[in-house]
Design goal:
This protein has 13 helices and 25 strands. It has 454 residues and is of the alpha+beta class. It folds into 4 domains: 79 residues, no CATH class; 122 residues, no CATH class; 83 residues, no CATH class; 152 residues, 3-Layer(aba) Sandwich (Trna Endonuclease, Chain: A, domain 1). The strands form 5 sheets. Strands 2-1-7-6-5-4-3 form a 7-stranded antiparallel β-sheet, covered by helices on one side. A 6-stranded mixed β-sheet has the order 8-9-10-11-12-13, with helices on both faces. A hairpin with a 2-residue loop joins strand 16 and strand 17. Helix 5 crosses helix 11. The longest helix is centred in the first third of the chain and has 22 residues. It is globular, with a radius of gyration of 24 Å.
Length: 454
């Protein structure tokens, strides 16, 4: 079955999975805990015979299957990644939080009742359903549940700005205690935002002023160390000249050989691994046919950020002529315990100034703030001389200047709130936004450059 072959490829590409069994039991598994042999799928302690396969999204698959001893079929839904899908339990939890925080707000502002409260997604203004909003006394208030994921908690900042423009009252934003590190770091870099909103925190019972002494987001710079295997890298890339691309795999101390963003081989001190199987020539032929511009195949629609990253690296001289192409590193530094959904590259100008490149394929309203998080981390490590000490930019003298921040995304992927959010960034942060064409898989064309980098 063609669908089963595509499943095997998807399991090789996506490392983590959330599996729903009849919508009742949820399993968080790594791809190595899932296998398909013939028409039998094994996941965790379960084994089922596949009857039907339905692709709901590029990384969401619904399988109808049954156990050997039963005729009744089960519905198995596989979600790429490790996040739970939204559903009734999520809405119930958010409603419980809304009630609890409402009582704490009345006590803090010394009023008897909440005048008005809302818990729904406001698509017109771009405020998600994770943020309950209140009118309490003369204040408007927005909050977020401490049990939400890191991106949702950090997204409170953007939602607070949007709510402020609608509420026409002094605004207060309530952050969960112990989850405010990212927001505090952003506020220190954005004094305008710090002053325009009253920032509070909730400890599970009471509300008080936000403690701005929270620790910075922990990040780590891996040593730049690679195997002495240039001959092996050259041999692999010779399988498809101009199609395969060697990319540093910083954390693994290896070199990743990629085809349009998908890893087909990895060279390390232990040898060469082939995550999509062998022979490499066959894998290259299949991928090059299926993962191409205009294809509707699953492999042309998965891990698109990695594909765009590959194209940006290949066209870096066109996009950023001032960059030193000898030094381009992905995912440096890495965030510890934080969920990140954007691709970042670290490079340098010919004069020795650091350049951060943030890449995004689809519209993400939080992109400017996520890019700011990375800039803050890079600046901290730059001032501590961590990049030079860990072996990056060999032979270059890094200038003692703030890093340049470059955003690269299809022009239509820039969210309508981007201009407002970037306007809040401090003037000392040099920002360049590049909007490219939607058909970037075929050829990158620059449609707009906005900002200064000098």
């Amino acid at each position: 079955m063609v669908e089963i072959d595509e499943l095997k490829i998807l399991f090789a590409v996506e490392p983590k999975w959330l599996i729903s069994l009849n919508g009742l039991e949820f399993l968080q598994l790594e791809s190595r805990e899932i296998s398909v042999a013939g028409t039998t799928i094994r996941f965790g302690r379960y084994e089922r015979k596949i009857r039907e396969v339905h692709w709901l999204r590029p990384n969401v698959v619904r399988i109808v299957a049954n156990a050997r001893t039963r005729t009744q079929c089960d519905t198995i839904t596989l979600y790429g990644g490790d996040r739970y899908p939204s559903g009734m339990d999520l809405r119930r939890r958010r409603r419980t939080f809304q009630i609890e925080i409402g009582k704490a707000l009345c006590a803090y502002f010394n009023v008897r009742n909440v005048q008005r409260q809302t818990l729904y997604a406001d698509r017109r203004y771009g405020i998600g359903g994770a943020y309950p909003r209140f009118l309490v006394g003369r204040h408007a208030v927005i909050a977020v549940d401490p049990d939400e994921s890191s991106p949702v908690v950090n997204g409170l900042m953007r939602s607070a700005l949007l709510w402020k423009s609608m509420a026409h009252r002094p605004l207060a934003a309530v952050v969960p205690r112990g989850r405010a590190n990212c927001i505090v770091a952003r506020l220190q870099a954005m004094p305008k935002l710090r002053q325009s909103i009253q920032w509070l925190e909730w400890d599970g019972q009471q509300i008080g002023p936000l403690d701005e002494s929270a620790c910075e987001l922990p990040t780590h710079v891996h040593p730049f160390s690679f195997p002495d295997a240039q001959d092996e890298v050259n041999r692999l890339c010779a399988e498809a000249p101009g199609l395969l691309q060697p990319i540093p795999h910083i954390a693994g101390q290896a070199i990743s050989i990629r085809l349009r963003g998908l890893e087909v081989a990895r060279v390390s001190m232990e040898g060469t691994a082939y995550p999509l199987g062998q022979p490499l020539s066959r894998v290259i032929q299949e991928l090059s046919e299926l993962r191409q511009y205009g294809s509707r195949h699953l492999l042309a629609r998965t891990h698109e950020e990695r594909w765009l990253e590959s194209n940006v690296i290949g066209n870096i001289s066109q996009l950023l002529p001032f960059v030193d192409v000898r030094h381009i590193y992905p995912q440096v530094p890495s965030f510890i315990g934080e969920e990140r959904n954007i691709i970042d590259l670290l490079t340098i100008t010919r004069e020795g100034r650091l350049v951060i490149i943030e890449i995004k394929v689809s519209a993400d309203p939080d992109l400017p703030f996520q890019a700011l998080d990375y800039w803050i981390a890079v600046e901290r490590h730059r001032k501590a001389s961590d990049f030079a000490n860990k072996g990056y930019f060999a032979g270059c003298n890094l200038r003692d200047e703030p890093a340049l921040l470059v955003l690269v995304a299809p022009l239509l992927a820039y969210h309508k709130t981007s201009r407002m959010l970037t306007g809040l960034l401090q003037p000392e942060l040099p920002l360049l936004q590049i909007g490219i064409n939607q058909a970037w898989k075929k050829e990158i064309k620059i449609l707009r450059r906005q900002g200064m980098v000098s």
